[in-house]
Amino acid sequence: MLTVVLAGCTEQQLQGWLPGDGPDTTNHTSGIIGLWVNSWIVLLGVGAITWGLTIWAVIVYRRRKGQTGLPVQLRYNMPIETFFTVVPLILVLGFFAFTAQEQAKIETRADDPDVTIEVNGKRWAWDFNYLDENVHFQGVQVAPDKNSDVQGAIDESTYPVLYLPVGREVELQLKSRDVIHSFWVIEFLYKKDMIPGKTTYMTFVPERIGEYEGKCAELCGEYHSLMLFKVKVVSQADYDAYIQSLRDAGNEGIVGDEYDTNTNLPGTKVPAGESDEEK
Ligand SMILES: [Cu+2]
């Protein structure tokens, strides 16, 4: 029966209208979609029963012609009160358990990832350090497309791009050079804060070759809305070619914490000539 019902569903409906072209964008997306869709099914079931009972009570116990005064007042119906306490408790605990289980799966760091990339958020772009290959890419803020009439159109060529090899276990080490940002690849269905002075981690396997939109998901200042990037999931050969192109361009080595501009952390100070006292 369920198969028949689901067979009539579009891909969009099957994944609960979440962004993406299917459940296998990363090794985590099908689990996230499952949690989302099943939660809705359970909650709509509860909703249908509740709405049904409400409407039934309204119709069956409506005031009829000739009736006056209040109806019989009932209280302390133990079975119903127990039911209304136990059922929500089971639902809340159930949602909590499934969420915690899914989160634990996603948050588990790989013992030995195939690819390790350090991602630095900075106002208002991104730096990518490919740690295994010891090469880097420094992004600059995206620029508006001057040839487009569309309001807010972005010049495609100015996007910072993060390359990932398909089917390999990736660990992203997320850091910030200044304020709190959040790393969000929309179709990966997960985001994570980038906190100055702290490293957070994202571990996943990108499973489908393609181009994915990314953005900062934490208001970080004037041009937050332009803190965009792209992720290109490519074959191992294309990935190696990209790394080689970085090397050819002279992007040897990594761009480390010396590029941080946060002056509020212990051990950092305002660059000479820029502190208020000196002015
Ligand atoms: Cu940001």
Give an account of the 3D structure:
By secondary structure, the protein is of the alpha+beta class. Helix content is 30%, strand content 21%. The strands form two sheets. A five-stranded mixed beta sheet has the order 3-2-1-5-8, covered by helices on one side. A five-stranded mixed beta sheet has the order 4-10-9-6-7. A hairpin with a 4-residue loop joins strand 6 (181-185) and strand 7. The longest helix has 32 residues, at 29-60. The mean pLDDT is 91. Bound molecules: copper (II) ion. The site of copper (II) ion (CU) has 7 residues, from loops.
Helix/strand class:
alpha+beta
Largest beta-sheet details: 5 strands, mixed
Please report the number of helical segments.
Answer: 5
Series of H and E elements: HHHHEEEEEEEEEEH
In helices, the fraction of residues equals: 25-40%
| Gyration radius from CA atoms, angstroms | 26 Å
Query: Can you count the beta strands?
Result: 10
Strand order of the largest sheet: 3-2-1-5-8
| Unique bound compounds | copper (II) ion
Strand content: 15-25%
- Given as residue ranges, the uncertain stretches (5+ residues, pLDDT < 50) are none
Mean of pLDDT: 91
- Shape, per Cα inertia axes: elongated
Q: What is the terminal separation in angstroms?
A: 76 Å
Key structural traits:
279 residues, binds copper (II) ion, 21% strand, alpha+beta, 5-stranded mixed beta sheet
Structure described in brief:
The chain is α+β, with helices and mostly antiparallel strands and 279 residues long. It is built from five helices and ten strands. It binds copper (II) ion.
